[in-house]
User: Fold these one by one.
Assistant:
Number 1:
Amino acid sequence: EVQLVESGGGLVQAGGSLRLSCAASGFTFDVYTLGWFRQAPGKEREGVSCFSSSDGNTYYADSVKGRFTISSDNAKKNTVYLQMNSLKPEDTAVYYCAAVDGGSYYPLCDLYGMDYWGKGTLVTVSS
């Protein structure tokens, strides 16, 4: 079974940066999807950014384009990072790492297409 361990959350002032890390293990297939979702208080969980190993495609939510960057570490297989710059108070949320083991019929970064979830890490952006 796939296991996901997130790290890197914390408190930062608006305009600052944070980098989230997700270490994944237990993949059965060579093809997989790794990504980040977030859930703010009182709001639904939403896709932030995802990466597909099969074709290298990436997805970014409109609200984070130009500010967030997803990347993977070839040296540390199955580790994905989310570099978050120019953070805004509205980015405050619990951020979850999620994964799909193998292919998927869902669009990249579709909430209902993800099979495995981390426990989440809190990001708080103060104004």
Number 2:
Amino acid sequence: QVQFVESGGGLVQPGGSLRLSCAVSGNIFSIYGWGWFRQAPGKQRESVASIIKDGTTNYVDSVKGRFTISRDAAKNTVYLQMDSLKPEDTAVYYCNFLPPRSYWGQGTQVTVSS
């Protein structure tokens, strides 16, 4: 059974930074890529950033230039560096494989507020 454990969220002021981590345990093979997703209150979960096994990254337009996804394959960990945070970035952030599996971790809450 694969498990995703997200961490690193918190309360930050607008313009601040956070670095999220996602550790994956269990049987991991033939993974095409990794992704970070978020779900704000009353909204559907959306893809934020992704990285495929050749290192190619992709971002939703609203976070381009502010967020950076990276991975440490040896540690089965993926990161999301978030800079210049805005109140609209407030959400629970999740990681998953690409394409996403049906199971999800608990996520980590990110709140951007003054």
Number 3:
Amino acid sequence: QLQLVESGGGLVQPGGSLNLSCAVSGFTLDFYGIGWFRQVPGRGREGVSCILDSDTGPWYTDSVKGRFTIARDNAKKMIYLHMTNLKPEDTAVYYCAISSRTSTDQGLCNQPGWFGRWGQGTQVTVSS
């Protein structure tokens, strides 16, 4: 059964760091595009970062550039989001997602419909 399970969320003070993980099971991760999205109440899911295929570098939304890093370990079937210098506006539920389709169009990184499978989400709260 294809499944994604996030972990690593929590409460952190402004300026702090968190490492989110997404464990993948039921398929081989190697050929999938990966992404992280976040959502706050009353708003749609926002693309945070993604890697669409093996030949395209990572994409980051402007507000997290220089602070967040996406990574993947295909052998371990893991997807990561390393978050540093966190700000209150980073508070959201974070979701990992995968797409069986590949593309070089990084505009798709902010299109939830491009991604076919999702985790259940993990809450990140940045507050003093």
Number 4:
Amino acid sequence: QVQLVESGGGLVQPGGSLRLSCAASVRLFSIYTMGWYRQAPGKQRELVASITSAHFTNYVDSVKGRFSISRDNVKNTVYLQMNSLKPEDTAVYYCNNFQLNWGWGQGTQVTVSS
């Protein structure tokens, strides 16, 4: 069973930055497309960003130009650099395999508030 451990969330003021990390306990991590997802209170979970094995990236329109996804295949870790944060970015953030559902970790809470 794959274990996904997210970290790096917190409380930040609008305009601030956070860097999220997600460590995956899986063999051959490098071959998988990974995604960062978020779920705000009362809303469905949504895909925020994805990164392929070749490091091609894709973003939901609402975070383009502000968020950046990256990966370290040696550390089996995927990152989400979040800049210019807005209150509407407040959510629990999760990572997962983009194509296969490995199950959800505990997530990391991001709260953007003054």
